[in-house]
């Protein structure tokens, strides 16, 4: 990565504020390392700053004629800078470049605000020094923070979310004005008229989708996700895969559809596809009453919320797509990674989840503007309400101990189960098996096939899902049946 501006621009003070520039006659590790640390902390969100070596200063302004750095010191200074920066915690590396101006050479150290703030630097270069300070900038000075300032640093400058980071590999030309205009028009923004005739950079700046440095105009990740034609160019596998398994996961027949483009558009396209090809309504007429029963295999509102949540909460620096797996008896929406550590397995089982922090606040803000999600921990409630209104089974939400993935599992309405299953269920209703007989049959089946699903047991034994679940619960309580592994990839162990 190169220095985003040149030495002439820095010396003028017209583009980069003087408070963001520090001039040094020579490389002084003890003083300069503190300044690098302070710029990295960027308490006031200035965008970091620059250290220019080879310039004498007076009251923060360069003194002419310029000194420069002698050629024989250039290499030694740069090696020392890299070595000393390793003392900053957590790890931080500024960008170092050599600039030539007025036939003299200068070392420019660019220190953008870091992604893992707060940073600390040793108080002294002494070998026995163990004290570390979270240095900050005050006007043109590098200082130790007061107690209140240090608290602000921890509260306000913690890890910059991935969606709000500047993307150094992209250019502002990667943002598409047409997509931006369509978005602003849809959300009825006052910026829409400006976007049609005004300065493109100003519009992007007003939307906070580019860096705020006048000398370094680059898109932020959230801007590329929503307003680039090909976000997967910058974030590989930013896509939604809808995969249908008509014959089950082990079958040979697989139908796959992939949706790419701006993330709000791929979300809408995937939802429209599911609505048109997957969701089906059934009408059941009754001879004894005029009103028929109407229900869907899956309520659209539940799928919409589950998939929107996946787009909202996935990690876009993880090279895994969102996958919607459609089997004959369920839909699973899989995303990576899982929820934050405040979400527990017990909470997921009881549908009581309250995120303490959000992975993608900026993405959430845009999705809310487009009415594609509500946020504020309303997702589970919306899904549950939609399923209940449709008469569908309750969902399952799953993650692992490492929170490496998250699955939203929606089960098909029992009215859509295969006809043979329904017939066997009817037979079972006419001649109901006793509880002990049911449990014995379940144990026999699971002993033969430890990975058999509830749906498989329903089909083989002619029982309802509730009957299966009740019997399994009782067998677990009796110590006769143990689950090993996750609901998705685990197996049953029958105890004798």
Query: In the CATH hierarchy, what is the class of the largest domain?
Result: Alpha Beta
Number of helical runs? 17
Radius of gyration: 30 Å
Structural class: alpha+beta
The beta-strand count equals 20
Outline:
The chain has about 500 residues and is of the alpha+beta class. It folds into four domains: about 5-160, 2-Layer Sandwich (Methyltransferase, Cobalt-precorrin-4 Transmethylase, Domain 2); about 165-235, no CATH class; about 240-415, Heat Shock Protein 90 (2-Layer Sandwich); about 420-495, Orthogonal Bundle (Arc Repressor Mutant, subunit A).
Describe the structure.
The chain has 496 residues and is of the alpha+beta class. The protein folds into four domains: 152 residues, 2-Layer Sandwich (Methyltransferase, Cobalt-precorrin-4 Transmethylase, Domain 2), CATH 3.30.950; 70 residues, no CATH class; 177 residues, Heat Shock Protein 90 (2-Layer Sandwich), CATH 3.30.565.60; 76 residues, Arc Repressor Mutant, subunit A. The chain has a six-stranded mixed sheet. A hairpin with a 2-residue loop joins β3 and β4. α15 packs across α17. It is elongated and about 100 Å long.
Any key phrases for this structure?
Heat Shock Protein 90, 17 helices, 496 residues, 36% helix, 4-stranded mixed beta sheet, Methyltransferase, Cobalt-precorrin-4 Transmethylase, Domain 2, single chain, alpha+beta, 6-stranded mixed beta sheet, 4 domains
What is the strand and helix layout of this fold?
Blueprint: H1 7-12, E1 21-24, H2 29-41, E2 49-53, E3 57-58, E4 61-62, H3 71-85, E5 95-101, E6 104-111, E7 121-122, E8 132-133, E9 136-138, E10 141-143, H4 147-156, H5 177-186, H6 191-197, H7 200-206, H8 221-227, E11 240-244, E12 255-259, H9 263-277, E13 281-286, E14 289-296, H10 300-313, E15 322-326, E16 330-335, H11 345-349, H12 361-369, H13 379-390, E17 396-398, E18 406-411, H14 419-430, H15 435-448, H16 454-461, H17 465-477, E19 481-484, E20 491-494
Parallel strand pairs: 1-2, 11-15
Antiparallel strand pairs: 2-6, 3-4, 5-6, 7-8, 9-10, 11-12, 13-14, 15-16, 16-18, 17-18, 19-20
